[in-house]
């Protein structure tokens, strides 16, 4: 290891990236992150490359990509000279899924608005929302 290369413990990496230590260790266990080197006292030590890779994973998760999708994206990212068509296809697939979920969420929103409009106040035994959800209406 070069003297100038900074190494972080799992706690420091967690603080820097906003990813919990248990999640970092899990990503390492399932191979999304490479196995960390260990200090003489046994602490996991992570490089700047590990830091960048973890941010990639966190941002990908934030966009709703599954761990399998992220594994594929990381594999594609590691092949710098290849066409980005595989990445484009993966993003398009995710966009289709997000749009489908948005459609479902809009339908839920409208149903909840409809249910909310049914409420006249009063007591639970006369509640139209409970009645509707119970299938009695």
Give the helices and strands, then pairings.
Elements: H1 10-17, H2 21-29, E1 37-38, E2 44-45, H3 48-62, H4 67-77, H5 85-117, H6 128-134
Antiparallel strand pairs: 1-2
Pfam family, one: MerR
InterPro entries: DNA-bd_dom_put_sf (IPR009061), MerR-type_HTH_dom (IPR000551), MerR_fam (IPR047057), Tscrpt_reg_MerR_DNA-bd (IPR015358)
Domain HTH merR-type: 9-76
Could you please describe the fold and organization of this structure?
The protein is mostly helical and 137 residues long. It folds into two domains: 1-65, Multidrug-efflux Transporter Regulator, Chain: A, Domain 2 (Orthogonal Bundle); 83-137. It contains six helices and two strands; from the N terminus they run ααββαααα. The chain has helices at residues 10-17, 21-29, 48-62, 67-77, 85-117, 128-134, and strands at 37-38, 44-45. The chain has a two-stranded antiparallel sheet. The longest helix has 33 residues, at 85-117.
Brief write-up:
This is MerR family DNA-binding transcriptional regulator. This protein is an all-alpha fold and 137 residues long.
CATH fold node name of the largest domain: Multidrug-efflux Transporter Regulator, Chain: A, Domain 2
Give the termini distance in whole angstroms.
Answer: 70 Å
**Helix and strand succession?**
HHEEHHHH
Mean pLDDT: 89
Structural class assignment: mainly alpha
Helix tally? 6
Output the CATH class name of the largest domain.
Mainly Alpha
Radius of gyration: 23 Å
Strand content: under 5%
Strand neighbour order, sheet with most strands: 1-2
Oligomeric state:
single chain
How many domains in all? Answer: 2
What low-confidence regions span 5 or more consecutive residues with pLDDT below 50? none
Strand runs, count: 2
């Amino acid at each position: 290891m070069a003297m100038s290369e900074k190494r972080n413990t799992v706690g420091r990496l967690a603080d820097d990236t906003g990813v919990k230590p248990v999640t970092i260790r899990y990503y390492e266990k399932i191979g999304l992150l490479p196995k960390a080197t260990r200090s003489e006292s046994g602490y996991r030590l992570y490089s700047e490359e590990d830091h960048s890779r973890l941010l990639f994973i966190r941002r990908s998760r934030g966009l709703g990509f599954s761990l399998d999708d992220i594994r594929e994206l990381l594999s594609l990212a590691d092949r710098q000279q290849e066409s980005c068509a595989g990445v484009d296809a993966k993003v398009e697939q995710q966009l289709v899924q997000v749009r489908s979920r948005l459609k479902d969420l809009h339908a839920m929103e409208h149903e909840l608005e409809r249910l909310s409009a049914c409420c006249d106040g009063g007591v639970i035994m006369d509640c139209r929302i409970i009645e509707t959800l119970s299938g009695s209406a």
